[in-house]
Structure formats: C-alpha cells, structure tokens
Amino acid sequence: MTDKTVASGTVKKALHVLEHVASFERPVRFAEVLENAPYPKGTVYRMLQTLRVEKMLDYDETQQTYSLGIRLMGLAHAAWKNASLAPVARPFVEELAANTGETVHVAQIESGQVLFVDKLKATDRFETLAEAGKIAPAYCTGVGKAMLAFMAPKRLELALQQQAFFKYTPATHTSAQDLMTELDHIRKDGITFDREEHEQGIISIAAPILSDNGRVLGAVSIATSTSRHSLKEIEAFRPALLETVKKIGAEATSWQFPS
C-alpha cells in the first residue's frame, strides 16, 4: 500500500466523520458519533481529534460535545460565494419574493440530487422542508424537474440513474418512464410544477436558470401551500418567474459561473 493510498483513506474517513457530525444539526457527543460510524472507536476518536486540531470542529469541554468549527464555516462561506448561484441570484429572487408574497427557492443539482442554495420567505404562514444547504430528490421537486428537463442527454441519463423513485406522496413519479413524459412537456413549456410530489400540501412553480448557450446552471421555484393557492392560481406567477430566471442566467453567464 502506497503513502498516497493511506493518505487518501485517512482523508476519506475524516470527511465521513465530519459529515456525520454535521448531520446531527446540533452539538453531538462522542458516543452519538460512534454509534452509527462505520469505524472502530479508536479511529473515530482519532479523526475527531484531528478535525478539532485543524479547527474543522469545535469541542465544548463543559458539555463534552462536538460542533462545526470556525474554519469549516469560513470554507463554507467561501464556497457559497465562489461556487454557488446564491450571491448572483439574490437580488433577483428578493424582488421576486417581494412581488409574489411567497417563498422562493434557488437550487442547483449535484450527483442527481437537488441542493438548495438559497431560500427567501415572504411569509411565515407555512414552511417547506427546503432550506439552504439541504438536499432533496430531483425527480419529485419543481426545481429538480426543471433542471433535469434541460440537461444534455448524457448528463440526463446519468442523473436519472441516480434517482430512487421513492413514493413520498400519491402524486410522486415512481418510474423514469413517467418522469420522462413530463420532462418532454417541461421542455416545450419552459416551466414545471411540484404537484405535492415531495411534500403533502406544498406546491410550486419552477423554471430552469440557463446560460446563454443553454447550459443548466440551476433553477428557481415559487412555493406555497395548498391552503393558500391552487396550481391554477400559481400559474399566474409564470411571467415574473421566467423574467427572473432570464436575468439570473444572463448575470451568471457574464460572471462566468463555473460548470
């Protein structure tokens, strides 16, 4: 075994432990990390101490808990600024949220999954599962379907292979064939809807953010609850939504947003 292989394995374990700590979304004790970690006790302890020394994790001596460290926060902020659509899209989605009075999401797609990079709430009357930093399936979310529909064929094929097609609600697509039929309609229409496919009682209208050459950069959705609006009613947001994604796409293209 080479030094390079050993180093790679060590980094992989450390990152796995770091992600495990982050998944609790609160300060966590060593026993909790160890319980579901796929490594021996000594390895987990060693990884935690290394991450602590490197300031990727903080340790509270009084509570004996680990939490995300200041160095990691700095790296996350830099990534948000340099590799996320959020800073580019923010002024446009702020205006959209203010004009519609509804919640607006901005998302990108990674390994076939939706990553929400920003969320603006114009009302506190309802809440969605989507939050900045959260991951969701692409096949049953408005933003996910909007991005899938405009992907290049090979990229789409790979993304479809990464979908679980779990049935979250009665409206959820459960096969690639059913999803492809809708994606054809989305390409023609330019927008799509989440018809309570991921969360019961939550609907949205979404559209892709495209670069000048048609490359998918992300998507924007306007989400609301079925107690506030119907699908027919939120279709009225179409002109404002399409204008918003057009502006974001133009700005991102001139900013040379990375592939």
Structure characterization notes:
The chain is an alpha+beta fold and 259 residues long. It folds into two domains: 3-74, Orthogonal Bundle (Arc Repressor Mutant, subunit A); 84-254, 2-Layer Sandwich (Beta-Lactamase). It has helices spanning 3-23, 30-36, 41-53, 70-83, 86-100, 142-149, 153-161, 176-189, 231-234, 238-254, and strands at residues 57-60, 65-68, 103-110, 113-120, 135-137, 192-195, 202-210, 216-225. The longest helix is centred in the N-terminal third of the chain and has 21 residues, at 3-23.
The gist of it:
The chain has 259 residues and is α+β, with helices and mostly antiparallel strands. Helices cover 47% and strands 19% of the residues. The chain has ten helices and eight strands.
Brief descriptors of the model:
about 260 residues; alpha+beta; Arc Repressor Mutant, subunit A; Beta-Lactamase; 2 domains; 6-stranded antiparallel sheet; two-stranded antiparallel ribbon; 10 helices; 8 strands; elongated; disordered N terminus
Main sheet record: 6 strands, antiparallel
CATH topology of the largest domain: Beta-Lactamase
Distance between the termini: 35 Å
Percent helix range = 40-55%
**CATH H-tier superfamily of the largest domain:** GAF domain
| Name of the top-level CATH class of the largest domain | Alpha Beta
How many strand elements? Answer: 8
How many helices? Answer: 10
What string, H for helix and E for strand, traces the elements in order? HHHEEHHEEEHHHEEEHH
CATH architecture of the largest domain: 2-Layer Sandwich
